[in-house]
Amino acid sequence: MEESLNMLEMIQDEGQSHGKIEIAPEVIEVIAGIAASEVEGVAQMRGNFATGVAERLGKKTHGKGIRVELTEEGIKVDVYCLMKFGISIPTIAQEVQDNIRQTLYNMTALEAKEVNIHIVGVTFDTQKEGDEDFVE
Q1: How far is CA 89 from CA 12, 49, 63, 82, 127, in A?
Q2: Collapsing DSSP states into helix, strand and coil, what is residue 18?
Q3: Which residues of 4-27 are buried (b: 16+ CB within 10 A; e: fewer)?
Q4: Does residue 21 surpass a pLDDT of 60?
Q5: Which residue from 35, 65, 89, 109 could staple onto 103, CB 3.0 to 4.6 Å apart?
Q6: Distance (Å, rounded) from C-alpha 112 to C-alpha 115?
């Protein structure tokens, strides 16, 4: 009985807080962006004008096409992406959701309350790399 109490005290001592850890929403955006683009079938992520300009200037934006909202209920992630023509959109969208949830949990121990996938277009194989034309 004494050994279990001592062990419990040792665990509590080791578990003492040394401070707090804060993860910026931008970090979650980058993690989600990389996780989404890893899935085969996602052609590209959809950014805004600012990310397009930054990429043309040579800066890689990994959070492109991701919007993170921190609410009282939890983390809400919205993903805006273009899919490749000929794939099963529901299947790939589910894979993107699963990959984002798993990667976010593995890297930060945070669980996303929602991961919403917004398909904003379809790209075709005949397109050149970096071409912005797509079907909406």
Answers
A1: 48, 26, 22, 10, 19
A2: coil
A3: eeeeeeeeeeeeeeeeeeeeeeee
A4: yes
A5: 35
A6: 7
pLDDT > 70? residue 32: yes
Beta pairing, strands 75-84 & 112-123: parallel
Ranges 5-19, 23-37, 61-75, 118-132, most confident: 23-37
Grouping H, G, I as helix, E, B as strand and the rest as coil, residue 58 is: coil
Find where tokens 């665990």 sit: 11
pLDDT, tens only, 35-73: 999 999 998 887 544 444 444 455 455 567 899 998 888
Task: Extract the tokens encoding 80.
Answer: 């805006």
At 136, is the secondary structure helix, strand, or coil? coil
